[in-house]
Write the structure tokens for this entry.
Amino acid sequence: MKRIFLAGAIALTLILLLASLSLRASEAAAVGPHWLLHLVSFGALAFAWALGMPRVPTLIVALA
């Protein structure tokens, strides 16, 4: 199960990286407040990485 979460975390990181490099990424901000989109995306990343790497303290994952 840990490998599935780790693979999902890597995939999510790559997707968000590619989305942030896209020229059309600014259009997603029209969905809601810009800060809320950042909060949700970074929260999803932290959650996925924390489940993918359970031995690493959550604070270290969040800081990374």
